[in-house]
Target: Protein RER1
Amino acid sequence: MDFEQDQTDASQFQQYKHKLEISYRKFLDYITPHIIPRWIATYIIIIIFMGRILVVEGWYIVCYTWAIFLLNMFLKFLTPKIDPSLEQDIQNDSVEAGTNKMDENDEDFKPFIRRLPEFRFWFKTTISTIVAIFCSLFSIFDIPVFWPILVAYFIILFFLTMRRQIQHMIKYRYLPFDLGKTKYGSK
Model:
C-alpha cells in the first residue's frame, strides 16, 4: 500500500515539476523580445543590491565576487564566438602548407556572433545579482576585509582587461555593437 502511495506521490511531483518548467519556459519566451524592460528590471535589482551593500556596510567579498563575475560575462559578451586570432593562425598555417592561397584583398563577410548572446548575458546578470542579494542575507558571507583595496583592485583589473579587449578589437577590426552601421528596411 505504501509503495503505491509513493508511486502516486512521485508522479504528482513529476507532473507539478513539468508544469512549473513549462510555465518557466513560457515566461522566458514571453520576455525575450522585450530587451529594454528586461534590462530596466535588472538595473533595479542591481540598485537594490548596491543600496543594501552601502547601507549595511558589509558583504564586500560578495559584492567583489559578483563584480568579477559580471566583468567576466561582459568580456564574453564583447568577444566573438570564433576568435579571429585563432582563425588567422589557422589561415597562416594553411597558406604556409600551400593548401589555401588567399589574396590579401579577398575577405569574406563574417557577421559578428557573440560568444555570449545578449539574452544569456542578461539572464546570468539577473540571476547572479539575485544570488548576491541572497548571500548578503547571511552573516557567514560577511567576511571582514579592507574594502578600498578590493575597489582599487577591481578598477585596475577592469581597465587592464578592457584595454586588452579594445586592442584585440582594433587589431582584428571587429565592432561588437551596431553603432554607425547601415540599417536597411522600411522607413
Remarks:
- The mean pLDDT is 85.
- The first helix runs from residue 2 to 31.
